[in-house]
Specification:
The chain is 71% helix and 9% strand. The two termini are 49 Å apart. Helix 3 runs antiparallel to helix 6. A three-stranded mixed sheet has the order 1-2-3. The chain is elongated, with a radius of gyration of 29 Å. It has helices at residues 2-36, 39-65, 79-109, 116-144, 147-176, 181-208, 215-226, 261-278, 299-306, 310-324, 329-336, 340-349, and strands at residues 232-243, 246-255, 282-290. It folds into three domains: 2-208, Cation efflux protein transmembrane domain (Alpha-lytic protease prodomain-like); 211-293, Cation efflux protein, cytoplasmic domain (Alpha-Beta Plaits, 2-Layer Sandwich); 295-354, Arc Repressor Mutant, subunit A (Orthogonal Bundle). The chain contains twelve helices and three strands. The protein is mainly alpha-helical and 354 residues long.
């Protein structure tokens, strides 16, 4: 509960900072852009206005997504964040297309903006502020795995390059006294916005369509299950998805049939807790399946192994099987249903004489 509250506080601080900074940058850029007659600065101000709009969406969606599950939403409200991220993407793409159209018209007119020095200074300052804010929000997004914050951080990082592009364009205008560089910079910024938005949108769509968690995450889950051998003998039917910053995981775990119902229940809770600790913000459900294989060890030995540390238990299983077969690796491998070479390799890794 404490970790969940901390994640919630981190997301809300980042969303509030985003709104405050976006508001200030948008006002400054609009004022300077209109005063100078610079389309590139107006394009950058439009980007900041979009950041403000997105920040408001984030602020609302994060509070909605953090609400606990209820009768109508048993899996929680996490997808509000994914929807918010997708709305931001659509708005950014629409605005960028409008900037491209305006840039084409301005390019034909070849009008030279005024007050270039102050405008360049403003955009440099805005680039610095956007860089700091983007890093802060990106760190918060990684820490909480929030797709809406990740999309917001992307917008601020785009602002950095957009502002620097405007500085370069205004510098070129100042040197050449040609106005074409201003709409060219606006067009470059708009195209970059579209590309970045499409990438962010793909992630949001994947979450809305219940795309599985990354392979690395699934490997981490399998590693936790394997670490409890021989009490837990494997897993299957692993299903994962993400809703906002919440991960939903369910799987079947095969337990040793020598376990009592109480022992199986305790192990299930232990595994669920380990997975949730490894993957913060996750909701894990494990279905226990009894082992249906013919056991090569008698129940007393199996019960003894359950109380050993995982690696010692695994070593004991192989040693006992080898002793039973008079240290015949070929016969033991056939009994265990694995290739002899694999048995020798496993024995070596466990410190068993080969």
């Amino acid at each position: 509960m404490a970790r969940a509250n901390e994640r919630r506080a981190v997301k809300r601080r980042a969303a509030t900072l985003s709104m405050a900074v976006s508001s200030a940058l948008a006002v400054l850029k609009v004022a300077f852009g209109l005063a100078m007659g610079s389309l590139s600065i107006i394009a950058a101000s439009l980007d900041s206005l979009l950041d403000l709009f997105s920040s408001v969406i984030n602020w609302v969606s994060i509070r909605k997504a953090d609400q606990p599950a209820d009768e109508d939403h048993p899996f929680g409200h996490g997808k509000f964040e994914s929807i918010a991220g997708l709305i931001q993407v659509v708005v950014v793409i629409g605005a960028a297309v409008m900037v491209v159209i305006a840039a084409v018209e301005r390019y034909k007119a070849d009008r030279v903006p005024t007050h270039l020095g102050p405008g360049m200074a403003l955009m440099l300052a805005c680039a610095g502020v956007s860089l700091l804010v983007s890093r802060y929000i990106a760190a918060a997004a990684r820490r909480t795995e929030s797709p809406s914050l990740a999309a917001n951080a992307l917008q601020f990082s785009v602002d950095v390059w957009a502002n620097l592009a405007v500085v370069v364009a205004l510098g070129a205008v100042r040197i050449t006294e040609r106005g074409v560089f201003d709409p060219l910079a606006a067009g470059v910024v708009a195209v970059y916005l579209i590309i970045s938005a499409v990438r962010a949108g793909a992630e949001c769509v994947g979450q809305l369509l219940d795309q599985s968690l990354p392979p690395k995450t699934q490997e981490d889950i399998a590693g936790i299950i394997d670490s409890h051998y021989p009490r837990a003998l494997g897993m299957h039917r692993l299903r994962t998805r993400q809703a906002g910053s919440h991960k939903i995981i369910d799987l079947h775990v095969v337990f040793c049939k020598q376990l009592t119902f109480e022992q199986a229940h305790e192990l299930t809770e232990e595994l669920e807790t380990e997975i949730e600790d490894r993957l913060p913000g996750s909701d894990v459900l494990i279905h226990a399946d009894p082992c249906e294989e013919e056991c090569t060890l008698d129940g007393a030995i199996c019960q003894h192994f359950m109380h050993l540390p995982p690696e010692e238990a695994e070593r004991a299983v192989y040693v006992d099987a080898l002793i039973e077969n008079h240290w015949d690796f070929e016969k033991t491998a056939r009994q265990l249903g694995i290739p002899a070479a694999e048995l020798r390799s496993k024995a070596t890794s466990l410190g068993i004489p080969v």
